[in-house]
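Quick review question:
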């Protein structure tokens, strides 16, 4: 193939089977944590907030690749991804989750404690405020951005300005990974034209008052800006992975 266009599967049925096969051939997760995921999916109205178990596996793999021991998460919901980061760093590591919904944070805290997970600390409040007040003793190895999409550029800007080269007081260490979820929004960020069937489906959902707040024009604009800021920053090397809802992975060089 001359270009790098990846048209891998002829239809959704084949893509589903390939995805299942791929997940089955990817590292395993503790049953207690996958059971917690199943509980969220079965019982929670907003269960689509949480990452899939397959994406979770990729997170463990990435964190272990860089030997991460300290992870910062922006947007924790009921704590499934925080539990995954906890598993990735092991008992000697720590996870800090920023969440502004007290009910979600309370469920996350109690459920994780029930799972025997004691190395996750949730900080309540708007993440942009928490980011400006955090002073970790040792900088984080990885940050996962998964909160309100319209603030992604703000989160990036705060993370970078609070991680200045040579500073003894920084949020991210040199070489840290910046992982951000939902940066493609079912492809609408890259192709917002009517030729993309998801655009029409999204417009219909928005007209019915469903999901509009998640895929608003402002979210799309800000996700585009975030992807631009990440890829054009001289301080970051990026890999935009077109899997799931689009995962931006960046490595902070300095
Ligand atoms: C997509 S969910 C996170 C899902 C979680 N990372 C997981 O995979 O299990 C986004 C979360 O971000 C929280 N959130 C949204 N805006 C926020 C803000 N400005 N500050 C802090 N948390 C916010 C929401 O309450 C929600 O729980």
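Suggested answer, residue by residue:
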């Amino acid at each position: 193939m001359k270009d790098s266009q990846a048209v891998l599967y002829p239809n959704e049925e084949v893509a589903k089977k390939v995805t299942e096969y791929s997940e089955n051939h990817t590292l395993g997760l503790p049953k207690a944590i996958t059971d917690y995921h199943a509980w969220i999916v079965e019982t929670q109205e907003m269960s689509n907030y949480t990452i899939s178990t397959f994406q979770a596996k990729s997170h463990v793999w990435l964190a272990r690749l860089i030997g991460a021991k300290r992870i910062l998460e922006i947007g924790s919901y009921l704590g499934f991804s925080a539990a995954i980061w906890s598993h990735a760093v092991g008992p000697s590591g720590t996870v800090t989750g920023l969440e502004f919904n007290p009910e979600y944070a309370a469920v996350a805290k109690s459920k994780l404690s029930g799972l025997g997970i004691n190395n996750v600390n949730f900080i309540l409040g708007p993440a942009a405020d928490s980011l400006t007040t955090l002073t970790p003793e040792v900088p984080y190895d990885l940050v996962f951005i998964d909160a309100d999409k319209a603030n992604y550029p703000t989160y990036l800007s705060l993370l970078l300005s609070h991680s200045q080269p040579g500073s003894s007081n920084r949020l991210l260490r040199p070489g840290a990974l910046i992982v951000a979820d939902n940066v493609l929004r079912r492809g609408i960020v890259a192709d917002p034209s009517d030729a993309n069937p998801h655009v029409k489906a999204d417009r219909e959902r928005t007209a019915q008052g469903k999901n509009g707040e998640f895929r608003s024009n402002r979210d799309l604009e800000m996700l585009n800006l975030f992807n631009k800021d990440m890829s054009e920053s001289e301080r970051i090397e990026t890999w935009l992975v077109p899997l799931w809802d689009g995962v931006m992975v960046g490595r902070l060089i300095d």
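Why it works: The CA atoms of residues 44 and 78 lie 10 Å apart. The chain is about 40% helix and 15% strand.
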